[in-house]
Amino acid sequence: MKLQYGLLALLLASGLSSAGDLTGTWELVSGEFKNAKSKMLDYQQEKFVGIKVINTHHFSFISKRNGEFWAAASGPYTATDTRYTETPTIASFGEVGEDSYEFRYTLEGDNWYTERFEDDERVEYEHWQRVTP
Prior knowledge:
Layout: H1 2-13, E1 24-34, E2 40-42, E3 48-54, E4 58-65, E5 68-79, E6 83-86, E7 90-91, E8 101-108, E9 111-118, E10 121-130
């Protein structure tokens, strides 16, 4: 048991993670979201970039659109094997501490794919890639 615990501690300390582990730093690769006019916008066409950092209890992200600040938020999150929910307590948008954003996700190695739905309609899709040291 001590050897297994020691190996796990070594893997976590080295920045390697086990399947399903969302902790780390993530860079936005691609995605799309539905704007206020119900038009789906492509992240690459809109020149979106973003970084998300997740530790054991909190997330934080910042993003830019076409070289200009777009959004930032931070707060606690919860996760299961297929669902990830952010509850911003500080954000550059909307009410904080009241709204949560639930995503369905899949994790494939260092690639994290998230989808957010409202009324059974997908309103956001993102592909994140783990930033390795």
